[in-house]
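Memo to structure team: turn this sequence into structure tokens by end of day. - J.P.
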Amino acid sequence: MRVRERYRQIRGLMAQQRSAAVSQLKAPLGESAVHLCVDMQRLFSAQGPWPTPWMARVLPAVLAMVEHAPAKTLFTRFIPPLTAADAPGRWQAYYGKWAAVTRERIDPALLELLPALAAHVPPACVFDKPAYSAFTAPGLLAHLMERSADTLIVTGSETDVCVLASVLAAIDCGFRVVVARDGVCSSSDETHDALLTLYSRRFDVQLELADSAEIIDAWAVR
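Reply from structure team:
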């Protein structure tokens, strides 16, 4: 077990070193940047049915960015259907497997944001979504257009599911995307590391990786 744990630590350090090569932002961040915080809910905390062990660890970095620009923060919440039968297509099979998280069975409090983040609503806004991508939330894209946003700073859960879907949708929409490397988390170390490598190697023109402190320092907010 010690050898396996040491291997995991070494692999994590190697992934961080690979990502560090592209960690610097390509340009300053200004008034047109918006912080998109994906699914930092109790649903994915240690108290929820889908626990993401790193969530508590990345919360300080996420909270620091929210506090830097609360009025420019958009939270999403993943909201399951009332029953599996209410979901479209293959989502019915998904919620057949995860019937315990349908709204007829789950504790509604687990769908809320983590308390430290919820305290900033308002001025931060919340968008509820039925699927992985933030852009499945009704009104989100229109809201970004109304704000003349051209840059999305992304944090949240999980790196390899909802964050991934949101990042790819944002790229498709033409946004400059900045992922906070210390502000995203997953329940899988392996796929988290793999996604950070994918972001840096395959999307280096449209996506930037940076630490939350670097983002805050570069983000001028009035």
